[in-house]
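Revision sheet: C-alpha cells.
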Amino acid sequence: MIGRLNHVAIAVPDLAAASEQYRAMLGAEVGPPEDVVEHGVTVVFITLLNTKIELLHPLGEASPIAAFLARQPAGGIHHICYEVDDIVAARDHLAASGARILGDGSPKIGAHGKPVLFLHPKDFTGTLIELEEA
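Predicted:
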C-alpha cells in the first residue's frame, strides 16, 4: 500500500528566510510560496533528486502550523508524506487496522492538487503521517 516518500514537511517561523537558506546555503531548487487556504498554510516546495522538502508557514492565526510554532518557536519537522495509489482504499484499510484518520476522514485537496489524508501521530510512533494519492 505505502508508496514512495513524497515529502518531508518542516514548519518554519520565517518562510522567506528558510527559503533563502535552502537556496543560498544548500543550492536547492526552491519554488514560489503558495497559499493552501483549506489547510491554513503557505508552502514552499524544495525539489530534491529523490523527494521534496515542504516548508510550512501559518496562513492566519487559526492555522495548525501557528499552534505548532507556538509550541516549537524555532520550527521543526511537522510531518512526512507517503504516496498511495488509492487514498480511499488506503484510508479504509488503515481504519480497519485501528489507525485514526484525522478530521472527518474525507480526503481533502493538498498543495499538489491531489487528495490527502492525515493519520494520528500516536498511531505511528509519534509521527504525523500525510498520505497523498499518487
